[in-house]
Structure formats: structure tokens, C-alpha cells
């Protein structure tokens, strides 16, 4: 069965600092990988996705993520955090093919941004 | 662009009452999903549908029923609400199975 681990429940960074949110997955083949962001009281918005090809993917709001097969990781990065980035971030893994739906989410990382 | 719309946005139920949550999408997606979100638990899949007239169980289906009579709508029913069903419920849809999902704004349900 596939699974997603986000090791950091809560991260605090200063505005302007760099950010890396960790995501590790377990899946038997190359998965689809996603990062979503959720602002308070809102639904989830897709930041970026990896299906195949270039392992460094660019997303919205200046975020990027790198797929590392050898480490089963898909970490999210941003070079300079803005106060508006404060939110909860979810990594998700989707299974490829078949009729058995699988889009599994991690438990989330809450990001606090200090002025 | 409406995307995925959920109604209602908030609801308070008494234990044992029933209700239906409605999800509508205007993207012509085949696949639709219902998740619940609880603190520290992430999102857990309740039920999903791979097309009009189909439904399937997800990770936490007990106490819920669903129907997909029209392609654009996916209904989630609680026949006899319990306090353990207090949660935020999200509907989502996708073009392909297992790929990026588009989410509604959520329904905050409290069962007292």
C-alpha cells in the first residue's frame, strides 16, 4: 500500500528566509506526486505536480519541488518566503493506472512565517 | 469559473439526524471524491466515483453513503449522524484517476 510521510508537523521561518518542506513516499513504482496548499478555512489548492520527465518541477507562487527516486522524496522548496505563504501544506502520492483509485495525502505541515 | 462547489458550507446536526452534502463540478470530470479532514490526520478518502452511476468505498466509508446520479454531482449522505463524524468534508474531482484533484471549499459539520 502506498503511504506519504511529512516528518515536520510545524515549521516556523522568518519572512525572506528559504524554505524546505519534506515529503517521503512509499510506492512500488514511479508515482504521481503533488503538493497542495491550504489556507485557513479554505480548500486545497494545487501548487505543483510531478508525472514524469524533469525531476525538478516548478509550481505557482514561486515554489519548486524535486523528485528523488533514490530517496523516495519529493521536497518542496522556496528561496524566499513571504508572509502570505503561511498555510498548511500537504504532499500527496497518486497511483498510476488501474481501476483502484489511490490518491494518498500526508498529514500536513503547518508553516508559520514570522515578520 | 466555479470549479467544485459544495453546499452547505456549515451545518450543525444533532446525534441521530440525517443530512446530505452536495458537490457539483462544472469541469466535466469523470472522477469525484469525498474526503474528511481532521486535525493531525490529513485527508482521508470516504468514497469515490469513477463515473456516473458508480461509487466505491475509500479508506473510511462506514456511516456514509454516496450517490452519483448525474456526472456533475456527487452526494454524500449521513443516515444517522454521530459525534465522531464532526469534521470538515471536502469534495474533489479529477480528469484522470489518481491524478491531480480539484477541491471544493469544504463543509464544516458539527454533530452534537
Would you mind describing this structure in some detail?
- The complex is a heterodimer of chains A (115) and B (112).
- With 115 residues, chain A is mostly beta strands.
- Chain A is built from no helices and 12 strands.
- In chain A, the strands form 3 sheets. In chain A, strands 2, 5, 6, 10, 11 and 12 form a 6-stranded mixed beta sheet that branches. In chain A, strands 3-9-8-7 form a 4-stranded antiparallel beta sheet, with no helix packed on it. In chain A, strands 1-4 form a two-stranded antiparallel sheet.
- In chain A, strand 7 and strand 8 (64-68) form a beta hairpin.
- Chain A is globular, with a radius of gyration of 14 Å.
- In chain A, 36% of the residues are buried.
- The model of chain A has no long low-confidence stretch (mean pLDDT 91).
- Chain B has 112 residues and is mainly beta.
- Chain B has no helices and 11 strands.
- In chain B, the strands form 2 sheets. In chain B, strands 2, 4, 5, 6, 9, 10 and 11 form a 7-stranded mixed beta sheet that branches.
- Chain B is globular.
- Chain B starts with a strand and ends with a strand.
- The relative contact order of chain B is 0.33.
- Classes of the chains: A mainly beta (115), B mainly beta (112).
- Chain A binds chain B through residues 9, 32, 34, 36, 41-46, 49, 51, 90, 94-99, 101-103, 105-108, and chain B through 4, 31, 33, 35, 40-45, 48, 50, 56, 58, 90, 92, 94, 97-106.
